[in-house]
């Protein structure tokens, strides 16, 4: 019985390794349709497809890049939608929009002056980062200038 089990295991291992070693090909026909097969076509170029299980790392990178691009596109659309809504609000009721903007500047300045640690979302990476003193001073200066314009109105 042990010999039969050993022989069966070796036979299965031999068939498995030959199936893994088989090459598959990919090609695109004249109509732009992608085909896959064990035999490459004789009349056109075909590339070998890597069928190993661990070969998907480049595919994983491509999927990750695609997801990042989709997230960036979604964020850009959301920002455009917010800008459009703010523009519409400003055109419908300019005084209320101006007051709201000024209140936001005042709140930002208070946070920058009073909180020991201030974080913001990095517009390029989308990650949260702690503001250093130079960034903090620059943002406070911008908020003060904006508040001066609010007082002029």
Automatic annotation (TrEMBL):
This is DUF4124 domain-containing protein. Residues 1-21 form the signal peptide. It comes from Alcanivorax sediminis. Keywords: Signal. It comes from the Bacteria. Residues 12-62 form the DUF4124 domain. Residues 66-108 have a biased composition (Basic and acidic residues). Residues 40-60 have a biased composition (Polar residues). Residues 38-108 are annotated as: Disordered.
